[in-house]
Each structure stands twice: as C-alpha cells, then as structure tokens.
Design goal:
Elements: H1 29-41, H2 44-47, H3 74-99, H4 114-122, H5 129-139, H6 143-157, H7 161-186, H8 209-227, H9 238-257, H10 261-286, H11 290-322, H12 332-363, H13 384-394
Helix pairs in contact: 3-7, 3-8, 5-6, 7-8, 7-10, 8-9, 8-10, 9-12, 10-11, 11-12
Length: about 400
C-alpha cells in the first residue's frame, strides 16, 4: 500500500453519498445530483477500454494500483514546494547570485502624479504620442517629462535581474533533480527501450514506488507553479505557459487514474530533459557569461528539437495512438489522452518557432536575448540629468544648435 491512501474520490461503484439528516434514504435532490454527476464522471466506458471496469484495478494478488485518492496529497505538497522555494531563493539562490556579482539596480522612482498613475493602471503602460500630448496638458508637464515618467514607471514594475536569477535557479534545481530521478526510475525498465512494452498486460500493471513518487513530486511542482503564477516573472509566452501547466496536470491526473503510468513517466522525462538546459542557460545569461550562455543555448536547441519534435511525437504519441488499438477498440479515454498530448505538441511547435528565431539571430550575430522573454535585460534608465544631456546632443545643442525648452 502507498502512503496517504484516503477514501477514494470514486472510481469504484460501491461509493455513495450519505443522505443528510432527515432527508430519507434517497437524500436531498442536491445529493442525488452529485451522485449522478459522480457516477457519470467515473463511468467505466469513459476511462477504460471496453470489457474492463474499475474492479479490475482494485489491489489484489500483490498488485497495487494508482487511485484517484492519492492525488489529494499533491495540494499540501504544492504548498510545501512553495515554502521550500522561498527558503531556497533566499538562503541559496541569493548568495549564489552575489557570487556572480548579480544585484538589482537602483532605479529612479517616478514622481507622484495621480493623473499619470490613473492612466498607467487603467488605460495603457505605453501611451501613444497623442495620449502623451493630452496628458502633458492635464499635468502641466512637457511631453518629454511625461515620456520619462512612463519609462520610469514601467521600470518600477519590471522584475529585477536578481528575481529572474533566483526563479531560474529554483527551476534548474528542480528540473535537474527530476530528470536524474526519472532516469533512475526508468533506466532498467523494458518499456524505456521498447515502447510496445508500455501496454504489456495493460491495465493490470502494478504501480511501483518509484512511479508513485515521480508522479506526485512532478504534479506537486506544477501545482506550485500555478499557485505562484501571479508573483513570477511574466514573459511573452505567459498564456502558453499557463496552458502548458494546466494541460500537463490534466494529462498526468488522467493517466494516473486510468493507469497510463508507464507512458506518463516517459512524457515527464522527455519534458525535463530540455528544461534543464533552458534554465541553466538563463542563469549564465543573467551572470553575463556570454560564451557559456551561447554554448548552452546550442545544446538546449538541439535537445529541445530532438526530445520535443522527434522523440515525443514519433515515439511517445505513436505509442499511445497506435499500440492500444492492437488490443482494444478506441474509447473516450483513448481520444482524450491523445488530445492532451497533441495540445502539448502544439505548444512545442510554438516554442520551436521562437527557438529557431533565436538561432537565426545567433547565426547572423545579432542575438539580443530570449525570444520568449519580455526583455531579459532591463530597459535603459537614465536619470533626469543624463536624459537632459542626451536630449541636448539629439537636438544639436551640443554642436551649436538651439536647445528646446523642456
């Protein structure tokens, strides 16, 4: 038996909702509605191939199967990951960043302005020229002063490089640990080398302890990413990342309940492989180790293309799309599982496009940062005095021209 085995959510027809006090044996209409929804949700034909029922996945003869009730534990584990991350970023990542000389810049704070702040929060962070002209009249400021205010205000909200470094350090540490742990869990398994073995004896495949912890830890980590999404650095692919995390959690939860655990562990390992190089490349980028960063980027691009665009679709999706039909007719769970795999593949194609754009810049020598990042480096921020000198040069005052009033 595995730890934290709570009463099942249901995949067993023997579970029923107790009627409320005084409601009679049939319970209230609300309870009957919940009972009906539960029965439909856990209907065998949705999750399992024909001629198989949940009774086939009950522990017996020394075999232990994954249960939906195990997934309860991912909630407190996700919270535990947030606590561990908080301690890691402050006690380990911050001193590590200091060793690279990484510190947040001291930024000039935008002057207090109720009018500009209201426009910034309610309308636009980057106003058009006509909006700037209108705001300058309302505030009694020059257009240049309004432009400077919006630039400084945007910089106030822009995450510092130290925050980015700490986040990347945490993700790198997890992905590296998960990838190594996944290899240890899978290297001696026959289905790691022959994907036909994924379905050997399905669904009566006893769950191993290594599979249990691999799943629970990965799901808890992705759960913690969803909890922290409001506080993490937002990049250009923010929406795609949310879809990825949700699709991954749904995919893992479904594969857990339907006992697709063998293929689930393979999917996790393939994803962790390239993420290790992605996060390590970010670390060296923030530390301004340009040559090391470029070398890691090349390795990351190669690993990503091989794992996400070759192994994932032509080995893993082929395994889930073709082999099950040799033993079972198609059913809802078969289509749903493959649909979620295809959602991830579409995201892989989107990120591959961004990576190829970076490769193009890398080859032609104008590499400026991470295409999926919302500016990895902070915007140049000039003090009012520096900007005044800059404007004088622009307007020709430094070469005998006439200085414009501002």
């Amino acid at each position: 038996m595995h730890p934290f085995e709570l009463p099942p959510l249901l995949p067993h027809s023997t579970m029923s909702l107790p009627p409320p006090h005084g409601a009679g044996p049939q319970g209230s209409p609300f309870c009957r509605m919940l009972q009906t929804i539960s029965e439909w949700f856990w209907w065998d034909r949705i999750w399992l191939p024909v001629n198989l029922t949940w009774s086939d996945l009950e522990d017996s003869q020394g075999r232990v199967y994954a249960k939906a009730s195990h997934l309860y534990v991912t909630v407190p584990y996700s919270i535990a990951f947030l606590i561990i991350r908080y301690l890691f970023e402050r006690l380990i990542a911050t001193p590590f960043a200091a060793s690279f000389g990484i510190r947040d810049r001291v930024r000039h704070r935008a002057a207090d302005s109720v009018i500009l702040e209201r426009h910034y929060r309610s309308f636009s962070r980057t106003p058009t020229q006509s909006e700037i002209d209108g705001l300058s009249k309302k505030c009694g400021w020059s257009s240049r002063q309004v432009e400077r205010w919006f630039r400084q205000r945007r910089n106030q909200d822009r995450p510092g490089i130290l925050k980015k470094f700490r986040e990347a350090s945490w993700r790198f540490t997890f992905y590296l640990s998960a990838f190594v742990g996944g290899l240890i869990a899978l290297y001696d398994k026959p289905w790691f080398y022959d994907t036909r073995e994924v379905w050997a004896g399905f669904p009566k495949q006893s769950m191993l302890d290594s599979q249990y912890w691999y799943y629970i830890i990965e799901m808890s980590f992705y759960g913690s990413l969803l909890f922290s999404v409001a506080f993490d650095v937002k990049r250009k692919d923010f929406k795609e990342q949310i879809i990825h995390h949700l699709a991954t959690l749904i995919l893992l939860a479904f594969s857990w309940c339907a006992n697709y655990i063998r293929i689930g562990t393979m999917v996790m390992l393939v994803h962790d492989a390239s993420d290790v190089f992605l996060e390590s490349g970010k670390l060296f980028n923030y530390a301004k180790w340009e040559k090391t960063c470029n070398a890691i980027f090349v390795v990351f691009a190669l690993v990503f293309m091989v794992t996400r665009l070759i192994i994932y679709p032509f080995w893993l999706i082929h395994c889930t799309w073709v082999y099950p039909l040799l033993d079972f007719p198609p059913f809802f769970g078969y289509y749903f599982f493959n649909l979620m795999l295809m959602v991830l593949q579409l995201l892989h194609l989107f990120w591959a496009y961004l990576i190829l754009r970076m490769v193009k810049k890398f080859i032609f020598g104008n590499m400026t940062g991470d295409e999926r990042s919302d500016h990895e480096e902070e915007e140049d921020e000039m003090s009012p005095e520096e900007e005044e000198v800059h404007l004088k040069v622009q307007n020709g005052s430094g070469a005998g021209g006439v200085q414009r009033d501002h």
